[in-house]
Each structure stands twice: as C-alpha cells, then as structure tokens.
C-alpha cells in the first residue's frame, strides 16, 4: 500500500478552463498550508509557458508540477487536482493533455525521495490512474489512494 500522506485539504476534483488555472489551483493547495511561496507557483507556470517545463508531463494524462527548492519550497509535500475533463498542456500545441495534476514541493534534493517512491507505486498501476481520473469527488479520490 502506498502512503502519499495526502489529506483532503490538499486534494480537489475540479474543472479548469486552461492549464494555468489548473496548475495554479494545485499548487495553491500547497501554498495555503505553507508548503510553497507564491514565487514557486509563478516559477512552475513560467516554466510550462516557456515550453521548458513540458518535461513535467509524465504521460497518461499526468503532470507533476514542481520546481527547484530555491524557488520557494518551504516544506516537502504533495497535492492533487483531478480534472473532470482533460485539458491541453502548454500555450503551443504540445500534443499533451493532462487530467491528474500532482503538485510537489521539496525543500532539498533528497527529502522527497521516499515520497517519490510512494508516488511511483501509485502511478505504475494503470487501474489506479484510471480510477483517479474518474473520481467524482475528493472522498472518492482519497479512497483510491488509500486502497492502493
């Protein structure tokens, strides 16, 4: 069983008009609890907008929105936004769409290794990915993660 330590306060099931609002929502969940500063969110959005941050798209409709610790990470943690409908990633036609956005904050290059190991356990299971994408609400999304 994976342990992502994701409380309901850092999970949302939502609609988004574009990738900027979706990524901002996801990282704002971290900001609200003191995990990141606003400049961290700005850096992630800037990186994706420039095209350099498209590496954050992990495939299968998953985005791991993150930046470097020095960009405003205060604590190590994770957030999740499940989009009811996939949206295109980037301002140019990258051909990538996203539906699950995980926000990651890490205070250094080592502190998040255990969290990433647990994250990988979740993402490697196609049934978990698909169940998350169809989760109608936060409780259902958390239920999927708890039973993983």
Automatic annotation (TrEMBL):
It comes from the Bacteria. PROSITE patterns: PTS_EIIA_TYPE_2. It is found in: Cytoplasm. Gene3D superfamilies: Mannitol-specific EII, Chain A. Keywords: Cytoplasm, Kinase, Phosphoprotein, Phosphotransferase system, Sugar transport, Transferase, Transport. InterPro entries: Ascorbate-PTS_EIIA_comp, PTrfase/Anion_transptr, PTS_EIIA_type-2_dom. Its main location: cytoplasm. Signal peptide: none annotated. The keyword Transport applies. One of its GO terms (cellular component) is cytoplasm. One of its GO terms (biological process) is phosphoenolpyruvate-dependent sugar phosphotransferase system. Residues 2-148 form the PTS EIIA type-2 domain. GO terms for molecular function: kinase activity. The phosphoenolpyruvate-dependent sugar phosphotransferase system (sugar PTS), a major carbohydrate active transport system, catalyzes the phosphorylation of incoming sugar substrates concomitantly with their translocation across the cell membrane. The enzyme II UlaABC PTS system is involved in ascorbate transport. This is Ascorbate-specific PTS system EIIA component. It comes from Corynebacterium pyruviciproducens.
């Amino acid at each position: 069983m994976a342990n992502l330590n994701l409380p309901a306060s850092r999970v949302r099931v939502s609609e988004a008009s574009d990738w900027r609002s979706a990524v901002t929502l996801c990282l704002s969940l971290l900001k609200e609890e003191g995990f990141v500063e606003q400049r961290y969110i700005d850096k992630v959005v800037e990186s994706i907008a420039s095209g350099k941050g498209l590496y954050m798209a992990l495939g299968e409709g998953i985005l791991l929105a993150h930046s470097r610790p020095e960009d405003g990470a205060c604590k190590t943690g994770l957030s999740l936004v499940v989009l009811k409908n996939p949206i295109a990633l980037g301002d140019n036609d990258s051909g990538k769409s996203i539906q699950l956005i995980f926000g990651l904050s890490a205070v250094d290059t080592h502190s998040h290794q255990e969290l990433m190991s647990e994250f990988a356990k979740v993402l490697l299971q196609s049934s978990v990915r698909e169940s998350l994408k169809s989760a109608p609400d936060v409780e259902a999304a958390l239920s999927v993660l708890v039973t993983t």
